[in-house]
Amino acid sequence: MQDNQIVLSLEGITKRFGALMANDQLDLTLRSGEILALLGENGAGKTTLMNILFGHYVQDEGVVRVAGKVLPPGSPGAALAAGVGMVHQHFALAENLTGFDNIRLGTEPLMRLGSSRAAARRKVEQIMGESGLEVDLDRRVAALTVGEKQRVEILKALYRNVRVLILDEPTAVLTPQEAEGLFAVLRRLAANGLGVIFISHKLGEVLAVSHRILVLRGGRKAGELVTAQADRRAIADLMVGKSVAELKRTAPEPGKTLVEFRDVSLMRGVARAPLVHANFTLRAGEIVGVAGVSGNGQAAIAALLSGLALPSSGQVLLDGAPVTSADPRALVTAGVARMPEDRQHDGVVGTMSVADNIAIEEVRRRPFARMGFLNRKAMRQRALDAIAAYDIRCPGPDAEARLLSGGNVQKLILARVLEREPKIILANQPTRGLDVGAQAEVHRRIIAARDRGAAVLVISEDLDELFALADRFLVVHAGEVTDAGPSTALDRSTVGLLMAGHINTAAPAIPA
Amino acid sequence: MDVLFDIFGSANFWAAAVRIATPLIFGVLGALLCERAGVLNLGIEGIFVAGAMAGWIAVWLGAGLWGGVLVAALAGAVFGLLHAMLTVILGLSQHVSGIGITLLATSLSYFTYRTALPSVTSPPRITPFQPIAIPGLSDLPLIGPALFAQTPLTWLAFALVAVIALLLYRTPLGLAIRAVGDNPAAVEAQGLSVQGLRIGAVVAGSALMALGGAFLTLSAFDAFFFGMVNGRGWICIALVVFASWQPGKALLGALLFGAFDAFQIRLQAEIGQVVPGQVFLMLPYLLSILALVLVARRADYPRALLQPWFKGQRH
Question: Domain of A78?
């Protein structure tokens, strides 16, 4: 670290969205050469705060000072001019332009005839050399990988000689290796005197890259600590606001068979990868985990159990009765609850309200339908109850579902499907992308449903999640399903071998 | 075969093709500018009528031909501003607003005409732009009359193709216009005004469209008639897609259409006894559809076309 002067200070920032208090009297200071992590769950107000700093939103109260000078609110142009740059989570790039043109965009007076490309080019290349951010500048952004797009975003800011760089959940879209590369770049930039604000909800990377951590919760500051002295457990508690309880799980009491896959094959079609001669059962009161590397037949199992496809051969039996048509509504009526893999895309209709989305599977039945008309009052009431019971953070039942964060969308889906007390639950990647608190909540609900007597199938790529939830394991590899037995008799390496296709045919594969 | 040879061999045919293409060049450039910024302007058909009407009546009132051109452009700009207010500021449906502008501009033009000339059966004539012959070049066979004996407005149209191309690809403003039609978030994040860029593009584009209308009354004909625009605006909307939103290809598309149209008129005269005339009238449109089917599959739409943007909006 060099001179350590304060480059940025936020004082008493408050922002409301309707009834939602997104930021409540927040203060923050940043010194040059410092990497400050802004940590918090989804909906804690991190992104809102940074959008105020960058001028996308106008705060209701409070001031932003950059190098001591007050920043006029609501103007990204003013923020850039003052030396604040932002790398957006959803990249703010024009895909029809080259990386170079995206970097130049808005840096010259608009009414100029011609433009000085050569000088701009030299400057960008110099920055690339110094920072280690290598990108093919002449390719259209549409043709770049996600990692390259992010590098263009950072170059955009550096080209403007920013003193403060904000990165909003930069690693969400990166592979672990790309994330490591990004951290190296950030350390180098900070060593040269740049102030960096790093937004994240991932504890591990925050500990790895930051100097100081500011924890937000419910729009308020929950704590501030120096990374070197921070304790992982303590930070997690700060984020969630209460001690994250270890999941309690009693031994399963499996009842009758509710789902049976009898020699089921599904060739390519609905699912990317086929399923071949799958035999397994799912019983009341147990959670069965499906482990496997993505694309080994999970999508086929999910499609069959959601009513999106019929087997090419073999039979799927629900409570003893074979499924005869690919009809999602029939399966819902038969008591199947579905939590789809891509919840934002397949789980909700973004432009419809929270209330509509909660009622959507039952709109033909009472109380939501009366004599063929929708009963808006009942739908609203149900939504209000669900928002309270499932802690769905949103402005209200009339808010559009697309405005909800991932965790809250998942809670909405839980509220939709669990209220009916379904007999069978398909949970496909139930906590992918969720923060610690939301994750624990989803797990608790799933276990509660099992204890009530539901048969649950959890498909996940996260082995920790499967070991936390599943009573029994299935492992898929190349479309083949192996019954790996009860989870108590398994360890990670055994499951890992099965996932890689090492099937032990000698009796049940239960190592000592 | 002789018939075809006669047609394509006549300088008259090529001159007509360029003449028919001229209003389309103005229109397609205008539509292209609007759409590059992310705004579909279906007001084009009505703005053509308004330009034709305003330009002609200004000249009739004694404004001079170039004065008429200016008045037409202003009339187009006013309707463009209205469209921009509705679609860019208020974020209303671009389709609905555009159709509304077309109906409004057309009716207002007819209304003005009737109010100004309550009792005439045929409109008063003005003296339109005359072809400028360029000594030497105009005497070349075939292309001489086609390219070098046109009126000043045709020259202007050709010049504007180059101007728009330079604007889009060689200036900071053009870079911003191309970006705002693809991802307004990128433009806002670089400190530029999404609304300002879009309003400017729609107003300027609409002024260009009106010049297409003015060409009809001030150059191709010498008076204003009801129904004289006759779908030219809609053709421009199709030509933009054909042109993949590029000025050079837009010029090519307009000239192709002009050639088809000039061809069908002559073919009609030659073998109109055998085949009903309506078939020939259909020809340019059928060919446009065919061209669109071939091209549109690969069309690279501006990604933000039709999408309103509000400041501070989240994805």
Answer: 6-240
